[in-house]
Amino acid sequence: MATASTIILGTGSYAPARILTNADLAKMVDTSDEWIRTRSGIRERHIAAPGEATSDLAVAAARAALADAKLQPKDIDLLIVATVTPDQPLPAASCAIQHKLGIPTHAACFDLNAACSGFVYALDTASAMLASGRYRHALVIGAEKLSAITNWKDRTTCVLFGDGAGAVVLGVSHEPGVGLLGTKLGAYGDSADLLCIPRGGSSNPATAESIAAGDHFIQMKGKEVFKIAVRAMEEAARDILEQQGLHADQIALVIPHQANLRIIESISQYLELPMERFYVNLERYGNTSSASIPIALDEARRAGRIKRGDITLLVAFGAGLTYGAALVRW
Ligand code: ACO
């Protein structure tokens, strides 16, 4: 019998109704549509309603993925939620999502924080757990309400982020050569300070002063992060292709983390793959961190951009600084 591999049985995504355009942002901070578009490629982003939590976005995406997979919540025995914005610091968002969806109590549920690389990390983790033979169906969600940790007075970050969720249902196949072919994960922990929330954790609990200073929001040294992002994503893509003995030209579609169009264009040049082979939707979502790849994956599938037999490359980069790449044959 062929060895078991992880396959994607269904995908789903959800974005909150409210749209914040670049023109709206230009009324809030000293910026312009032109600056945001030319520096990042972003035109608008979705923003969750005040009462809408990360778990609500995740549940909507998960319901769509379960329907696509023709499975029920009762079929799920493993739930991994990639997020940097759980509903509360404690407990994990996955437990709220399990409860809202009606996933059984025998299911393992946990959150994973690898920032914008979180979905690729969660995919790899779920795949290893499925390969153990102790789980049958995994639900992997990337969900973020980044608007809750964004400093809306800081023009260097607030123009970049958005809210949303994407989900996949995973199962096991014995058909040779399909599913998750391989993954490559890593991190540059020495550069963690370039992209972080400085206060509010155990090393630096929040104080009235730190909150007044906005130190409980995301802070980023954009230019430095940009350079490392380009290099890390290029190397991760090259390494995973080498690992699998594949050439870039064999990739039908690249689904990159949607942070900045210029980062994606650099990867396109490096891999010598035209931009038509990259799925880009950041102009409508901004950077949704863990949610960005599963939202793009779901959109690409529903738009008919992924066909049976195609090889898709997922490649991500985020706070940590983490990176990850995965190859999937459909
Ligand atoms: N509107 C107008 N001007 C602005 C804005 C703005 N919103 N933001 C910054 N500027 C100004 C700066 O102050 C600076 O002015 P100065 O030259 O007078 O000092 C100038 O514009 C250029 O700023 P840079 O930061 O050098 O602009 P850059 O071209 O590097 O683009 C950006 C900034 C878009 C943030 C880019 O660096 C980037 O995308 N970085 C990587 C982001 C990323 O990939 N993050 C990882 C994932 S995020 C996560 O994990 C949560």
- Main beta-sheet annotation: 5 strands, mixed
For the largest beta sheet, what order do the strands appear in spatially?
1-7-6-4-5
Helix-and-strand structural type: alpha/beta
Tally of individual domains: 2
Q: Helicity range of the residues?
A: 25-40%
Proportion of residues in β-strands: 15-25%
Instruction: Compute the average pLDDT.
Output: 97
CATH top level assignment of the largest domain: Alpha Beta
**How many extended strands?**
13
Number of helices: 11
Principal-axes geometry comes out as globular
Q: How would you classify the quaternary structure? A: single chain
Radius of gyration: 19 Å
Proper CATH architecture of the largest domain: 3-Layer(aba) Sandwich
Question: Could you give the distance between the termini?
Answer: 20 Å
SSE series: EEHHEHEHEHEHEEEHEHEHHHEE
* Uncertain stretches: none
Looking at the structure, the CATH topology of the largest domain is: Peroxisomal Thiolase, Chain A, domain 1
CATH superfamily of the largest domain: Thiolase/Chalcone synthase
Bound molecule kinds, no repeats: acetyl coenzyme *A
